[in-house]
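Subject: two folds for Thursday's group meeting

Dear M.,

Sorry for the delay on this. The cluster queue was jammed most of the week, so I only got both jobs back this morning. I'm pasting them in the order they finished. Each block is the input sequence followed by the predicted structure tokens. Could you check whether the formatting survives your parser before we put anything on slides? The first protein is the one we discussed after the seminar.
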Amino acid sequence: MCLAAPSRVLEVREGTALTECFGQLREVSLLLLDDEVVVGDYLLIQAGGFAFERVEAERAEEALALMAELVAKGDDERRWGHVA
């Protein structure tokens, strides 16, 4: 299973985009996308560096908040699925 965290587009270049997710910058290919990508969009990116889906901002920000919450929890809580 692959988990893709939404990455925010900072800059659009010819066929690629500079994205950011949790402070990490990444240059990704837009080859697999049919839709136009603009600065501020959120993308899901495959491990190989190809963006494969554009995500609505509200949905992306909600997912990022949940991921940040999970990271902030201790390892035991993540492993056993405890809910606070």
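Second protein, same layout:
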Amino acid sequence: MIDYILMIIAVFGAIIALIQRDLLKAAILTGISGAAIAFLFQYLLAPDVALTQAIVGSAIIPVFIALAVKKTRRMEEE
């Protein structure tokens, strides 16, 4: 049962990140699906994959996306 809940959280986290207009919010919200997938791997008794997913999917990738957004100039819509 918990595996279905984690899958739903991962999918909804990705959908919420996709519909965001602010790129920094989207970068932060990508960590939700990464963390849910990491918990799912831990539940499925794959701790090495879960640790890698937790580090990469919920920490490094959102930080890299946020840094890329910060380095670019924002154009304000009129």
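Two things I noticed about the second structure. The chain has a mean pLDDT of 90. The chain is about 80% helix and 0% strand.

Cheers,
T.
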